[in-house]
Design a protein that fits this description.
There is one protein chain. The chain contains four helices and ten strands. With 161 residues, it is an alpha/beta fold. It has one domain: Rossmann fold (3-Layer(aba) Sandwich). The strands form three sheets. A six-stranded mixed β-sheet has the order 4-1-5-6-7-8, sandwiched between helices. A two-stranded antiparallel sheet has the order 2-3. The longest helix has 14 residues.
């Protein structure tokens, strides 16, 4: 089973500038994470963009959805910023694809060393292999149908609606 990972940015791939104190994008860390986790999965990584999801446009979301349509893979993981995952998942779901698609992200950048992104990515990879066709969000060790979840900003976690 081949899994495609579409990288779109979000906190997952942000880095910290020690001089300015700002977070920024340099490149994705997905291959490094998979290698350090000793992944044996057949994975194709495609970087679509590196953008904060709050700055993502409808055109960006359509590009993500179109890549899901065009992909030969029936198992897709999308790394994405947590603030607007549902918006992107909504657009992807409207394509009515016969694929299992799981969006995931992180609250803490991977480069901080204590990121939840490693766990979230591992869970998303397991869920994409085992869930039926549909669009899901995987965070905090749980999966949710995209339209049955919300981000609780007070507690920094995703919850079922």
């Amino acid at each position: 089973m081949r899994i495609t990972i579409f990288v779109t940015g979000g906190t997952f791939d942000k880095e910290y500038n020690e001089i300015t104190g700002e977070l920024y994008f340099k490149d994705t860390h997905i291959r490094e994470i998979l290698d350090s986790g000793r992944s044996l999965l057949d994975i194709d990584i495609k970087k679509l963009m590196l953008i904060d999801s709050l700055k993502m446009t409808n055109e960006d979301r359509e590009e993500i959805a179109q890549n899901c349509v065009d992909s030969e893979s029936r198992h897709i993981v999308i790394t994405h910023g947590t603030d607007t995952m549902r918006k992107t998942a909504n657009i992807v779901s409207k394509k009515s694809l016969n694929k299992t698609i799981v969006l995931t992200g992180a609250m803490i950048p991977y480069k901080f060393g204590s990121s939840d992104g490693l766990f979230n990515l591992g869970c998303a990879l397991a869920f994409v292999q085992s869930l039926p066709v549909g669009v899901y969000i995987a965070m905090n060790g749980k999966y949710f149908r995209w339209n049955e979840v919300k981000k609780n900003k007070n507690f920094g976690r995703f919850e079922k609606i």
